[in-house]
Design brief:
By secondary structure, this protein is α/β, with parallel strands linked by helices. It has a single domain (3-163), classed as 3-Layer(aba) Sandwich (Rossmann fold), CATH 3.40.50.970. The protein is 50% helix and 18% strand. The chain is built from seven helices and six strands; from the N terminus they run αβαβαβαβαβαβα. The chain has helices at residues 3-13, 28-36, 48-60, 71-88, 110-123, 136-150, 160-163; strands at 16-21, 41-44, 64-70, 93-97, 127-130, 154-158. It has a six-stranded parallel sheet, sandwiched between helices. Helix 1 (3-13) runs parallel beside helix 6.
Length: 168
Amino acid sequence: MNWAETIVESLKKSNTSLIAYVPDISIDQVTSLIEADSYFHLVSASREEEAIGIAVGSYAVGRNSAVFMQSSGFGNSINAIASLCIPARVPIPIFINLRGGVGEFNIAQVAMGRTTRPILDLLGLVHFTLEDENRLDTLLDGALKLCHANRQPVAICLTQMLHGGKLA
């Protein structure tokens, strides 16, 4: 099973069926699998804070959800996370494609890619960084369980070392 299939299986194990995302080629392997699977309801958002709002609404009506976004858009979602998810204790796994690392071709992606994890630390949110497929299932299953048990968002950062990144 590759990294994308492992993510999909972990979402199923955690009964997470609504996926809100901002389209991005680096996560297309995952979102394509999700879209093809009748278990999931995939919702495309135009902005990251919109994806967070969709996920919060889903949780409010009893359906576990997750969000997929790119680190450059993470900055757009900070207010929604800090003023809604954290105080309302909404457990949303947030999968963040980290840009600006090894092999990055777009200099505009570097600043948010480097500051995403420190911002998560400042918000007091647990986060995990996935760089390879070693024990990926164990890490994902544990992160999703922690997210729901703690009733707080958990960030799962996906690196170019995991998924191969974008091409120029």
